[in-house]
Amino acid sequence: MPLDIYSTRAQLAAIELMPREYSFLYDTFVRDMGPVEDDKAIYDFRKGTRQMAPIVHPGTGGVLMTRGGYETREIEFCTIAPERIITNNDLKSRSFGENVFGAMTPEQRAKKMQAKDLTEMRLAIQRRREWMARMVLLLGKLNVFRYTSEGRDLATLLSADYQFTNNFTPATAWNQASATIDADMRTIFDLVYEGSGFVDIIVMAPDVADAMIANSNYIKQFDYRNVNMGEINARYVGQGVRFIGFNSDGVEMYSLSGKFIDDDGTTKPVMPSGKLIAGAKGILKCPYGPVTQVESNGADAMPKTYIKSEVPLRYGSIDSNSVKNRLTSRPTIIPFNVDAWCVASVL
Fold this sequence. Notes:
By secondary structure, this protein is of the alpha+beta class.
């Protein structure tokens, strides 16, 4: 019996062969942990500590040390489920980019639209994961509004506060001639180190990068591996990301531009003006909850559960003479150690 190409099983096989869309903050700072069977993400929360071993009197044996304290917490998975509808008119009319004189049948057009919708919905889901990573990095919180078929429901806010406190503001803003940028960076690194983390990457807003490069005192401490004939060769690497170079400690520095439309309808920069994030790659983790969905109509219909990162569903409506494609993902973002990075407001 041939496999139904529109079945969840067939679409899952296709999705697993498709590479996930790259996004800078998520792919830099988040480790993808894959799907789990639990309906809530259970994780160990801790603040970074560095305990010193005690000195004991000879012959008295050892002295008990307390174990590093942590709490076991849980957080609900966010359910992301974009849909696309294919109506009878969509199948009869030429789609965008289709040959004007082509002879594509409605069945062929439906398959093409199915593939295009799946690709675009996966991209939309990745944008939401990027948004979640951004919020945890900048605020140490994850505040998520749920949507209904009527729109955003302001009464159903999912909130996880990871009690992030590693914020830093320099005594002198970096766009001032007297700024001590290199010393401020060392203070930032020390904050992360004291929290049992380390720094191997700095991501900053474009105006921070401009102020840093324009500061003649800082440039004297700049690592000149990325300098040619006295000019800093900032290199654009795509998606608003520019590699600036290495600071005096050899840490990679990037500027991140670009904007997005937030849930409240306002346009915001990906990296807020005047801010930078200093930390290590992979300081956050993203597990995925199970997806349960009903895939047929009738009294004998039973829900099916998938332990997958993304689960497709195609279903039709006889009344509206249309077909809907849905893609469901249930991620959440959790820090390994909430003191392992620092957010600095330097302008």
